[in-house]
């Protein structure tokens, strides 16, 4: 379907960083690049806004979210509020199939190289996908599609922040953090799992804050 193709292309382009933070997403330019109508592009843009990967600005069209400290801290707060609670439900409700899925997702994540020479300092796309699948699998045992849809949207919106934090923030032992999450979940220790996830999300938010500070100092308007 044409609209699905354009949506997938635009979403991937934003996630790759093809459009700078705060950059305008002009329907006319996108339609010309993709060889489609304005209606198709606008439909794709509305869907990307729904994913939290673009903003719809009054009288100014669409734009990639700006790298503002406030925005990412709000996302981090939302995730710290919702995801540990969903993980608790997963630990309580998840069956043997969920346990096997968590173990497999963690194994894939641990065995996927985070960096590849061709992609420089950036986390590899394969690692990013394995990372997404691991976190999604941890939550999937809750059995509540409404909570999972909410978590998916928050994940997509904060993935931009995670990538920025990963590129420029302080070094972290992701292997150890994810191993603690897996072990606590499979041990059916809801308190430990929720605590590990909260710390994991907090470290990402803190890394972004530290990465943004020198950037904002150089360009004061960037954080407004």
From TrEMBL:
Coiled coil: none annotated. Residues 1-67 form the HTH gntR-type domain. This is GntR family transcriptional regulator. The keyword DNA-binding applies. SMART domains: FCD, HTH_GNTR. Pfam families: FCD, GntR. One of its GO terms (molecular function) is DNA-binding transcription factor activity. Keywords: DNA-binding, Transcription, Transcription regulation. Transmembrane segments: none annotated. PANTHER family: GLUCONATE OPERON TRANSCRIPTIONAL REPRESSOR (PTHR43537:SF24), TRANSCRIPTIONAL REGULATOR, GNTR FAMILY (PTHR43537). It comes from the Bacteria. InterPro entries: GntR_C, TF_FadR/GntR_C, Tscrpt_reg_HTH_GntR, WH-like_DNA-bd_sf, WH_DNA-bd_sf. The keyword Protein biosynthesis does not apply. Gene3D superfamilies: GntR ligand-binding domain-like, Winged helix-like DNA-binding domain superfamily/Winged helix DNA-binding domain. Residues 205-224 are annotated as: Disordered.
């Amino acid at each position: 379907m044409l609209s699905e193709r354009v949506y997938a292309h635009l979403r991937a382009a934003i996630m790759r960083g093809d459009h700078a933070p705060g950059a305008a997403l002009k329907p006319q330019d996108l339609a010309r690049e993709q060889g489609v109508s304005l209606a198709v592009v606008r439909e794709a843009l509305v869907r990307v806004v729904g994913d939290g990967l673009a903003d719809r600005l009054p009288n100014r069209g669409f734009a990639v979210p700006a790298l503002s400290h406030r925005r990412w801290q709000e996302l981090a707060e939302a995730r710290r509020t919702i995801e540990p609670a969903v993980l608790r439900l997963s630990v309580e409700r998840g069956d043997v199939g969920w346990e096997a899925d968590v173990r497999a997702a963690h194994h894939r994540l641990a065995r996927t190289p985070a960096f590849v020479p061709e992609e420089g300092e950036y986390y590899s796309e394969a690692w990013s996908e394995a990372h997404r699948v691991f976190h999604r699998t941890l939550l999937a045992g809750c059995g509540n599609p409404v909570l999972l849809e909410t978590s998916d949207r928050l994940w997509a919106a904060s993935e931009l922040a995670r990538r920025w934090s990963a590129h420029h923030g302080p070094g972290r032992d992701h292997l150890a953090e994810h191993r603690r999450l897996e072990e606590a979940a499979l041990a059916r220790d809801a308190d430990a799992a929720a605590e590990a996830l909260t710390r994991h999300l907090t470290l990402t938010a803190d890394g972004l804050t530290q990465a943004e500070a020198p950037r904002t100092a150089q360009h004061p308007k960037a954080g407004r």
